[in-house]
Amino acid sequence: MPPETVLQKWYTLSLALIRHTPTYSPPVASRALAYLGVTAYEAIASSSPKLQSLAGQLQELKPLPPREAGKTYDEVVVLDAALAAMMHDLFSNTGPSGQQAIHHLEEELKAKAVSTDSTPETIARSEAYGQAIAAHLAAWSHEDGGAVVENMGFPWSYELKKGPEHWAPTNPLSRQQQVPLLPDWGKNRSFAMPAGASCELPPPYPYSEDPSSAFYKDALETYQIGKTLTPEQKAIAFFWIDDAMASPTPAGHWVSILMQIAEHDHLTLERQVDSLARLGVAMADAFIGCWHEKYRYDLVRPMTYIRRVIAADWTPFLLTPPFPEYPSGHSTQSGAAAAVLAAIFGDPYPFSDNTRERDGAIPRSFNGFFDASKEASISRLYGGIHFRAALERGFEQGKCIGAYAIALKTWR
After folding, report:
1. Tens digit of each residue's pLDDT (9 = 90 or more) over 104-114
2. Is the pTM of this model over 0.85?
3. How many C-beta neighbours within 10 Å does residue 148 have?
4. Does residue 166 sit in the same domain as residue 231?
5. How far apart are the first and last CA of the chain?
6. Residues 41, 130, 128, CA angle at the centre, nearest 5°?
7. What is the largest CA-CA distance in the chain?
8. What's residue 114's pLDDT?
9. In this predicted structure, what is the pLDDT of residue 131?
10. Predicted local confidence at residue 343, as pLDDT
11. What are phi and psi of 248, to 5 degrees?
């Protein structure tokens, strides 16, 4: 079995498990995809004359275990064993059906991935080495601050900030959502970004209920667009909704786009693992940076403000997520994703995206990565869950964060 097929099968399963693992909110999913990408990359880089390790480049990542000198390895088995072990670690809390899916794919690939020329000793050595790579990276991951997610990511206790400018719960029916999601995620160890505070944003517009203020005008735009949505705007909002437990999340959506491109354009294995690692790292860092700013400013959501100040009966097109407004997570991570993919493939780079087809969304075509990322960003304004300032500044933050993943030295 070609190594590209092994890679595709494990990634396909990861995107499915993200949909069905309760703790996998968008930040958590981005973290998992980053570690999965680094695992695949290091498994291939360990023998490739074209690629160099990310050890010493990613935060606190020490050199990986070396291979036995003069010994032969089955490279497909190394890759498969590394990904299987990392999947078990990342999705250790998924349900019985998810555990069964991991086990079944592991057994399937063990039977099919081995080269007919490999001896039992080579197979055993290769499997052990792949597992050693995963164990090294898993141990590294356990120290980043995001390995354990309790209560679906909602803190057991949390004191809301006082004042009309601050975040307030938007879903009175959910006990969990009376506190915001993952308030400490912005403190997690980053990957390529120097720290969670990197690429800081300017403050949002000063809070005001004065109709002449910038804050009010931003809110009024969200309200007015929400009242007059066109079918196309609704389709865009639905296409990029990427909710937890109903999609592979925003990070998974972009990984799906990359996997579609890899298949369509017949990318080499080295280009695939390089792209997946950079993309995963950029999006995970984007969520850390975004969450750092969200809880730094703790800004009120459009739904709360508009109902209090403009129209008490207003309802946004999309369900408002349970965390602060500024900046937009979709915008930050889409900006980071587009920056990385444009640096790798160029832009414009026409492609079609069928990620949401199984959910009833019609596939969409784009001129390039920034075209798609800007549509993902504006979709949150159409959905009524962000002000424009959160989109525009989040997008710029994402491009800033993506530059750190672009700067990684991967090719020899």
Report:
1. 999 999 888 77
2. yes
3. 8
4. yes
5. 27
6. 165
7. 76
8. 76
9. 98
10. 98
11. -80, 10
Structure tokens given for 164 = 């009309």
Domain that holds residue 35: 3-141
Tokens encoding 146: 């995001």
Q: Give the domain CATH number at 261.
A: 1.10.606.20
Q: Which helix (H) or strand (E) is 281 found in, with range? A: helix 269-297
| C-beta neighbour count of 155 within 10 angstroms | 15
Instruction: Show the low-confidence residues of the chain (pLDDT under 50).
Output: none
Specify the 3-state DSSP secondary structure of 286: helix
Q: What span, in angstroms and rounded, lies between the C-alpha atoms of 308 and 79? A: 55
221 and 166 in a common domain: yes
Q: Return phi, psi of residue 299, to 5°.
A: -85, 145
Give the residue carrying structure tokens 């809390």.
93
What are phi and psi for residue 146, nearest 5 degrees?
A: -120, 10
Q: Residue 233 is which amino acid?
A: Q
Query: Residue 84 is part of a domain; what is its CATH number?
Result: 1.20.144.10
Count CB atoms within 10 A of the CB of residue 371: 17
Residue type at 104 in one-letter notation: H
Give which of 146, 345, 373, 365 is closest to 250, Cα–Cα.
373
Report how far residue 75's alpha carbon sits from residue 132's, in angstroms, rounded to the nearest whole number: 14
